[in-house]
Amino acid sequence: MADYSFEENFTPEHHDNLIKGEYEACQFHQIDWSESDLKEYKFIDCSFEECNLSNTLLQKTSFQDCKFNKCKLLGIRFEDCNPFNFSIHIHNSNLDHSSFYQVKLSNSQFFNTSMQGVELTEADLSNSKISECNLLDAQFENTNLQNCDLSRSRDLELDPEINQLKGAIFSEDQLIGLLRKYGIRIQ
Question: Which of 14, 80, 146, 149 sits a CA distance of 20 to 30 A from 8?
Answer without folding.
Answer: 80
